[in-house]
Request: fold
Amino acid sequence: MTPKHVSPSKRDLLSRPVEHFEAEKYSSVSEVIEAFEGTSYQSRRLASCLNILTKMLTDKERPLVFMGLAGAMVPGGLRRVVRDMIKYHVVDVLVSTGANLFHDLAESIGFHHYVQSYNMSDTKLQEMQIDRIYDTYADEEEFQQTDKYVVKFIESLEPRLYSSREFLYLLGAKLKDESSVLGTAAAAGVPIFSPALNDSSIGMALAAYRLRRKAEESVIIDSIKDNLEILALKRMAKKSAAIYVGGGTPKNFIQQIHPMAVISGVRVRAHDYGIQITTDDPKWGGLSGCTLEESVSWGKLTRDASYDTVYMDATIGLPLLFKAVMEKKDLWYPRKPFEIDWKKIK
Reply:
C-alpha cells in the first residue's frame, strides 16, 4: 500500500483490476466473503470486516473484545448467533439494549417470536394482543408473563445498588435454557452491560417493583457503577476490539471508555480493532451511522487501528461473518476466556 504522504501515480491508482465473482468457484461462506476482496461496494467492506475479525482473534496479545448490540436482533433470529459468539469467546463483553435481553429472557422461559404469516391490520393485531416488530409477531400475553417473571426475580434480590452487569448476571444465572444469551453469558463468565436498561421492558418491571417501595428498601440499578466496571475491564487489557451491531447507546457506551479514562486521570489504550455493521448513514451526524474514522479523532480508536464498516442489514451481515470465522476456527480456536475477578473491582 502506498504511504499516505506519498502522492500515487496514475499507474499506482489503476494497478488492481476488479475481480469478478465466480459462483461455482467457492464452496464455503468464508471463501465467498474472501472472494469479495476483489469486488466493490459493500461486498468488499464485508471481506474487510472478516479480515479484521480474523486478525483480532489471532492477535497473540489476546485483545478484549467488546460487542455493542442494538436493534431488534433477538426477534430477528440472531439469538443463537450472539449466544455462540459468547460461548466461543469471540465476544468477551456484551453491551446490549435492554430490549434484546428482554426478548432473550422471554424465549428462555418458554415463549417465542413468530414469523408473520398473514398480513393483518395493526388495529386488528392490537385487538388480538399481538405485538408486531416489522414482519415478526409476539404475543402480548406472553410478554406480560415475562414482565411478571422479572418482577418476581427482582423481589428475590437483596435491596441495594446493583450495576446492570451484576443484575443481568444474577438474572442469567437462574436460566436453564442452553440457547439463552443471558444464561450462556452467566455460565461463561462473560459480562453483559445494559447502560439504558430503564429503556426496556426490564426497566419497566423495575419501575413497577419500585413503585410500591421506598428507595432505601429497593433494588436500584446504579448506571454510574456500569461506567466504573467497564473502565476497570478496559484497564485489565493490553489491547481491545469493538464489534458494533447497529449503534445507539451500546455503541456509545463502548466508544466512551477512552474519553472517560482521560477525564478520570486513568491511562488506557484506545481500541485496536473495530468492526461496524449498520444501515445508518453518516451524513446525518448520528452516532449509529458515524464512521470509525471519526472515532480516531476522538481517541476512541488508535491511530494505527484496523477497522472498517459494512453498510448492510445486520441480520444478514453478522451471521455471515460469524459463520465465516467459525470455518476458520483452526486459526484461533480455542480462545481462552478473559479472566475477571469482580471482587477486585470496586
Remarks:
- The chain has a mean pLDDT of 95.
